[in-house]
Amino acid sequence: MKKILMTAAAATAVALASFAPASAADVTLRLGHLWPSVAGIHKDLLAKWGEKVEADSEGRISVEIYPSSTLAKPPAQYESVKTGIMDATMTIQGYSANRFPLTQIVELPGLAKNGKHGSCILQGLYDEGLLADEYADTHPLFLMTHGPGLIHTADKAVKVPADLAGLRIRRPTTVVAKLLEDFGAQPVGMPAPASYQSMQRGVIDGVALPWEGALAFRLNELAKHHTEVGGLYTLSFVVAMNKSVYDGLPDDLKKIIDANSGKEWSEKGGAVFDALDVKGRKQAEEAGHEIIEIEGGIDNPDWKPALTGATEAYIKELEDKGLPGQKVYDRALELAQSCR
């Protein structure tokens, strides 16, 4: 009888084992970000990156993705990767004030035509070592930009700069804040996920976001007027990993991470932003919103003086701090010509 019970127990163990994975992952990476789980950046970029890493490592690396700022609030995400609260993030450099001044040169008017183009410029600057010191405390995987930022307002249409006077506009970074200030607006700093509630409550009159952001954070439900000043600004992003976590990987797994880093994924990220821009604009069109296209974009005589002044002031500010602002800006202009 004892023998029969032992045999049955052994059979049960074999049956249970058949439902278990063949082997657990050697490494689990916890990647947090600010977008909701339904957003395209989560589904079409970060989830795809995680799947590729897991497949290339044959399951030895598991990537757990935490959307909606569940591991850290947007302004703290980069620092949280540095300190090991999470293993990796995709975040906005400008949310860490004064930490990435050379990187934020790419935000200046007229540099980036779209997300893929801006990503090529930014990744190029990093790969050439011009931005390396700003990322010494983490291990960056790839950098990218979104497409052209624009102004979305709830009630008042913005057709000329004077229309911005007194409007409370959510701004993503201090660079964009300076642009808005020069037009007479009142910039209000807040992470993108807070924009919907703030506009709904009347705390702000509008937001500066690309079409992707209006789509991801449901701003097209509230903003009925959209002003496209082609090349007004763009925004930089980084997918970064905790330095100790990366350094602690065995060499073969480091190669997997390295193979899923750099230019290819940078441009994939930019392309995802561009595709989402198309969806966001289409959503506004189908809702019957007013879309105002400024003739000539940043070269429009009503808009150009303030935009040119903001660029010159930012470069001078960097130079006054002993940073090679002009050198990096000049190289960004050269890359803008060679990137496609």
UniProtKB/TrEMBL annotation:
<dbReference type="InterPro" id="IPR018389">
    <property type="entry name" value="DctP_fam"/>
</dbReference>
<protein>
    <submittedName>
        <fullName>C4-dicarboxylate ABC transporter substrate-binding protein</fullName>
    </submittedName>
</protein>
<feature type="signal peptide">
    <location>
        <begin position="1"/>
        <end position="24"/>
    </location>
</feature>
<keyword id="KW-0732">Signal</keyword>
<dbReference type="Pfam" id="PF03480">
    <property type="entry name" value="DctP"/>
</dbReference>
<dbReference type="GO" id="GO:0055085">
    <property type="term" value="P:transmembrane transport"/>
</dbReference>
<dbReference type="InterPro" id="IPR038404">
    <property type="entry name" value="TRAP_DctP_sf"/>
</dbReference>
